[in-house]
Amino acid sequence: TLSCLGTPPPVEPEEARSVVRVAAAPRRSAVARWAARLGPPVLGAAFAALLALGVATPCMTLRVDMDLLYEHRPSLKAWSGILDALDLPKLLHSEVSVWRCVVALCHWAAQGDLNCVLALVMYALFAVLVPVMDVAALLTAAASRGPADSAMALSRVLRKLSMLDVSIMGTLVVVAALSSMRENGVVIALGRGLLPLLGAELCH
């Protein structure tokens, strides 16, 4: 992504620079004009609402299924009295949201963990904040009465840096990769927050 931003565009041939008379664009219908006016703010509002919901709602869950554990590990059935007394399903149950991840990364980064600092930058900045900035730039360009070259240029850069879609795909890959842990009674599944995040990315 960063290397694409540093790649210069190809030089335009001299013969392509000649001035060509272009016919005027056909006049748009009233429906198209209203869609052009209302579309950006509606999509922007939908993006903000879905992103906020997706950030606050758990997108990945972890739980322990004792029945699965005993089914795949019958030898542990003899220890069921001790294991059930430990209440492992309640002890190991966790629901993870983007907001909880960011807060936890801030806490660990403050303790000097450089890996968490990098993860915080990648997740909070590129996966959450950059898409918000991109949508803001697009809304600014749509609301501008004159040329919006600067806003569109900024949006093109931010679009390449946005990693919300990468974050969603990473969640799917992690859940799929850890599905084999069901044999040990550990169930890692997708949470409800993934759908709002996907909707926000579609609006983006």
Principal-axes shape call: elongated
Strand order of the largest sheet: 2-1-3
Low-pLDDT windows of residues: none
Number of strands: 3
Percent of residues in helices:
55-70%
* Structure classification: mainly alpha
How confident overall, as mean pLDDT? 79
Q: Could you tell me the strand content as a percent range?
A: 5-15%
Main sheet, how many strands, which sense, barrel? Answer: 3 strands, antiparallel
Number of helices: 10
Radius of gyration: 24 Å
H/E topology pattern: HHEHHHEHHHHEH
N-to-C CA distance: 18 Å
Transmembrane segments: 42-64, 117-140, 161-181
Keywords: Membrane, Transmembrane, Transmembrane helix
What would a concise description of this structure say?
With 204 residues, the protein is mostly helical.
Q: Describe it for me?
A:
This protein has 204 residues and is mainly alpha-helical. The protein is 63% helix and 6% strand. It has a domain at 60-190. The chain has helices spanning 2-5, 30-56, 66-72, 80-86, 88-91, 98-110, 114-143, 149-161, 164-177, 194-203; strands at 60-64, 94-96, 186-190. A three-stranded antiparallel sheet has the order 2-1-3. Helix 6 crosses helix 7, helix 7 (114-143) packs antiparallel against helix 8 (149-161) and helix 7 (114-143) packs across helix 9 (164-177). The longest helix has 30 residues, at 114-143. The model has no long low-confidence stretch (mean pLDDT 79).
